[in-house]
């Protein structure tokens, strides 16, 4: 019996509904993909949703994946989440030439930008080298034609290849290398920034020269970030301040609405300055002060919260202050008003108590004690 065009359309929709219920059952999806060509397309839509890669040059690494993506348009259009894990520990295992091949470079990131469905990118323990691809790779950085929008970008322990030189015993990342990665994007909904040993180029210089080197950094001109989760690891207050100043300049547009940070000893001044610069747009704060609470007792950490909260309160007072010019009445309902600011401080404590600090602007503060 031959099916009409309408019957085939209904049949396809029923197949999609059945396979959609199996989205988290990999074995069943593999069996369905072997049934027919139509079932294969619907099954691979879920099978290829999230891909995990091990390394860059290994058999299950990034380069092998990109080679398959060039041959299969289905991979380019179905992969929506990509997780790339580094090779592990590099110390003493490879020479300089082999180490350069293990790095993640501009051409690889540019190839990922050509995948239209990719929306979530996770980079773990990778080596980044802006000069890995030679002169042909440098023009790809800060290229105007690239407009890559991501729902989530995770940079966790991404290390600059220059830290792998002989005599370097710590993992670390340079500010310009992070900025080179971010220059490929036009919008990031959620940015997770967790770096080991943050450094400005010229790490051996004295603090005044470090600040001069910071002024020479090249920032992405068009990046918009909605939510920021930050945990930079700096050796001193100067580098901590440089890390948050870099994040402040990266979030130059007033689109940052959520800020989550793990505050370590020496970061309080840098975080307070960041909050004072971005409090006019941020609506949700989450502060992890476990490092401070491990040393403080009997509520002595509340001054840390008060310092940051004062910036939020002052910014909200400026925002709620009546204008000197009369406002033009609008027909928008009151429900369209922006929500109240929420500040949550957390830490590893045996008991907690909610401290309510009502203000004219409706902001609330909760902190464990």
TrEMBL record:
Biased composition (Polar residues): 331-357
Region (Disordered) residue spans: 319-369
Protein name per the record: F-box domain-containing protein
Organism: Phanerochaete carnosa (strain HHB-10118-sp)
